[in-house]
Amino acid sequence: MEAKKISASRVYKSSHVLPPDTNNHGTLFGGKLMAYIDDVAALSARKHARKSVVTASTDSIDFLKPIKVDSEVYLESFVTWTKNTSMEVFVKIIAEDLYTGEQLLCATSFLTFVAIGDDGKPTTVPKVIPETELEKFLFEQAPFRAENRKRRRKESYNLITKIKENYN
Ligand SMILES: CC(C)(COP(=O)(O)OP(=O)(O)OC[C@H]1O[C@@H](n2cnc3c(N)ncnc32)[C@H](O)[C@@H]1OP(=O)(O)O)[C@@H](O)C(=O)NCCC(=O)NCCS
User: Fold this and answer.
1) Using only C-alpha atoms, what is the Rg of the chain?
2) Tens digits of per-residue pLDDT, 72-130?
3) Whose CA is nearest to atom 18 of ligand 1?
4) Which Gene Ontology terms describe the biological processes this protein takes part in (predicted)?
């Protein structure tokens, strides 16, 4: 399977933040932003794998700054790293003040998607080729993040076992 450039999975999404999407603080709902993040990240994974994908996990989303009503919210995503059947996708979220043009990095997130074959089971994906400085940086750090996810997944299974024990 031929490796693909990271740039081939780049996805952009832009939206005007209007009152129905905001909370009582006049800022974008966290849940709305999470839906945008999953949406762009899934498209990046689809473009890289050219197969069906599912979200396996979302790392913590760091909401660094609020995104105010009447601003533009802009998301950019791309696949940073792959293992066998899984792909790590990075998403950055920027808000632009539509009066001044000032841009603020408001949030970042990493998600993991798994490619699914016609048999409904995980299937292998191509490797990535990082080119820019940021792509190379994220690529090099990715195995450490994957290890943390593996540990967290184990903890989730332990928790599920504990919960089940308490229901019986
Ligand atoms: C994600 C899923 C396909 C994994 O399937 P599985 O049978 O457990 O498969 P495996 O344990 O062999 O894992 C397959 C890959 O997923 C990765 N993976 C599984 N769970 C993960 C998690 N929570 N976080 C990150 N990666 C995960 C594994 O590391 C493995 O990666 P690799 O092949 O690159 O080494 C399965 O758990 C699933 O379908 N989950 C529900 C997905 C869903 O409904 N998403 C929301 C809507 S799209």
Assistant:
1) 18
2) 999 999 999 999 999 999 999 999 999 999 999 999 999 999 999 999 999 999 999 99
3) 56
4) acyl-CoA metabolic process; fatty acid catabolic process
**Superfamily grouping for domain 4-167:** Hotdog Thioesterase (3.10.129.10)
The tokens of 11 are what? Answer: 């996805």
Distances (CA, A) of 43 to 36, 85, 106, 139, 148: 11, 16, 21, 19, 24
For ligand 1, say whether the CB of 57 is within 6 Å of any of its atoms: yes
Structure tokens at 60: 């913590």
Give the C-alpha separation, 19 to 25, whole Å.
11
Ligand 1: residue of 114, 145, 149 to mutate (most ligand atoms within 8 A of CB) is 114
| Minimal-distance CA residue to ligand 1 atom 37 | 56
Task: Give the Cβ contact number of residue 63 at 10 Å.
Answer: 17
Cβ–ligand 1 distance for 56 under 6 Å, the answer yes
pTM above 0.85, yes or no: yes
Domain boundaries, the chain: 4-167
